From TrEMBL:
It comes from Streptomyces caeni. Residues 311-320, 327-367 have a biased composition (Low complexity). This is Protein kinase. Residues 411-424 have a biased composition (Basic and acidic residues). PANTHER family: MITOGEN-ACTIVATED PROTEIN KINASE KINASE KINASE 20-RELATED, SERINE_THREONINE-PROTEIN KINASE YBDM-RELATED. PROSITE patterns: PROTEIN_KINASE_ATP, PROTEIN_KINASE_DOM, PROTEIN_KINASE_ST. The keyword Glycosyltransferase does not apply. Residues 275-376, 405-447 are annotated as: Disordered. The chain crosses the membrane at residues 385-402. The lineage of its organism: Bacteria, Bacillati, Actinomycetota, Actinomycetes, Kitasatosporales. Keywords: ATP-binding, Kinase, Membrane, Nucleotide-binding, Transferase, Transmembrane, Transmembrane helix. Residues 19-270 form the Protein kinase domain. GO terms for molecular function: kinase activity. ATP binds at K47. It comes from the Bacteria.
């Protein structure tokens, strides 16, 4: 449902119940959503069933289920129900107005979200689905356009086709209710819906948020539904930190999908790591049939939750994490074999050839710098730098002191030499006179 505001049309009501209508927020298959306000000025999103459907008992029942679901769900994941009138000529209900664009509009206008944003939105939606499922409700139509990004967090809207847990998804024989590309395989087959049905839709929604495209591509409804049931999702461009989890959500078998609680915990962890720039470096998912059949998605997901992987140095995390399926990751640890596995003596190994990052008594293994050397300790570097500066200053002070002591002595020596020379010069005439006297006396004696 498009939630962009539009002016009221001539056929639109101006007052519904006790609410005054201001704008159109959008229109869907069941009715029109308006922006209204009550006498206190509280803004609401008011949904009114279409006139041509008001006499249809089936649509009235679906409308009543949406109101019932809104009343049963507790928590901040959905818009709070304000008022409703199911017996009116055109049934309506009003919920708290949620400002903000839909996830679909934000991605369409600004491009795919970063890995940290995707994980943050996914964690909030998973936590919201926990409350929805605890109320015994399955949304059945979770998709980017039914998620509003409010300043207080994402909100799930449009429970028009919500149903109790275990109900069928068919309204008519051979007709599935929902949006192609975001429907779960059991919905297409007409099987009973469970909370795992919403998990599949959430996985497809997160893939759209990370790539800007549906994981099952584009095409007619028949083509999209066939791909959902028989083909694997295309997750090119999904960040490596999120790809294994999204793939587990999109498992064909509902039993192999993680629970909403597991999703919430894991996505919160990924969001925290990505926000700190410590995103996991994961190998690209193998798209070959042999590798896919060797490990079920839930087993891979369990391994990924119990093992924390070291990050390769020199590769800052990015939105798409840089690697795409089909590329061979470089070896990041010494002691790994050519096939990518680690000898059993140095630690446990896991599927995919990545060594376990923990060693000893549960302490995290040091990150490898990629050069075979262990990274320097920042604290030790600071201590060494401090010692170097102190020693340099002491040496400089010693040299200055030595030069200061030699300067006066050298000047004193030069002064004494000059004094001796002046005395010798002053004595020079007396010596010459003495020589003359001696010479004269010698001549007189000779005469």
């Amino acid at each position: 449902m498009d939630m962009a505001m539009m002016r009221l049309r001539r056929e639109d009501p101006r007052v519904v119940g006790s609410f005054r209508i201001h704008r159109r927020l959008g229109a869907g298959g069941m009715g029109v959503v308006y922006l209204g306000s009550d006498k206190r000025g509280q803004r609401v999103a008011l949904k009114v069933i279409r006139p041509d459907l008001a006499e249809d008992q089936e649509f009235r029942s679906r409308f009543a289920r949406e109101v019932s679901a809104a009343r049963r769900i507790r928590g901040g994941c959905t818009a709070r129900l304000v008022a409703a009138d199911l017996e009116a000529e055109r049934p309506w209900f009003a919920t708290q107005y949620v400002p903000g664009p839909s996830l679909h509009d934000k991605v369409a206008e600004e491009g795919p979200l970063a890995a940290a944003e995707v994980a943050t939105v996914g964690a909030a939606l998973s936590e919201g689905l926990v409350a929805v499922h605890e109320a015994g409700v399955v949304h059945r139509d979770l998709k980017p356009s039914n998620i509003l990004l409010s300043p207080k967090g994402p909100r799930i809207i449009d429970f028009g086709i919500a149903w109790a847990t275990g109900a069928s998804t068919l309204t008519h024989v051979g007709t599935a209710v929902g949006s192609p590309g975001f429907l779960a395989p059991e919905q297409v087959r007409g099987a009973a819906v469970t909370p795992a049905t919403d998990v599949f839709s959430l996985g497809a929604t997160l893939a759209y948020a990370a790539t800007g495209d549906s994981p099952f591509g584009h095409g007619s409804s028949e083509v999209m539904l066939y791909r959902v049931v028989h083909e694997e999702p295309l997750l090119h461009g999904v960040p490596d930190a999120l790809a294994p989890l999204v793939r587990a959500c999109l498992a064909k078998d509902p039993e192999e999908r993680p629970s909403t609680l597991q999703l919430s915990l894991r996505l919160k962890e990924i969001a925290a790591r990505e926000a700190q720039g410590l995103g996991d470096v994961r190998p690209p998912a193998q798209r070959g049939g042999a590798d896919r059949s060797s490990a079920r998605p839930t087993e891979q997901y369990a391994e990924q939750r119990t093992e924390r992987r070291p990050q390769g140095a020199g590769a800052p995390p990015s939105r798409g994490s840089g690697r795409r399926p089909g590329t061979r990751p470089a070896a990041t640890q010494r002691g790994t074999t050519r096939s990518g596995t680690t000898p059993r003596a140095t630690g446990t190994t896991r599927t995919g050839g990545r060594p376990a990052p923990r060693s000893g008594a549960g302490r995290p293994a040091p990150r490898n710098t990629g050069t075979g050397l262990r990274p320097a300790n920042p604290r030790l570097l600071r201590q060494r730098l401090f010692v170097f500066v102190v020693v340099t200053l002491l040496v400089a002070l010693g040299i200055a002191a030595a030069q200061g002591c030699q300067g006066p002595a050298r000047g004193l020596d030069d002064g004494s030499v000059r004094k001796d020379r002046r005395q010798e010069q002053s004595y020079a005439p007396s010596r010459e006179g003495l020589s003359a006297v001696r010479y004269g006396s010698g001549q007189s004696r000779a005469g």
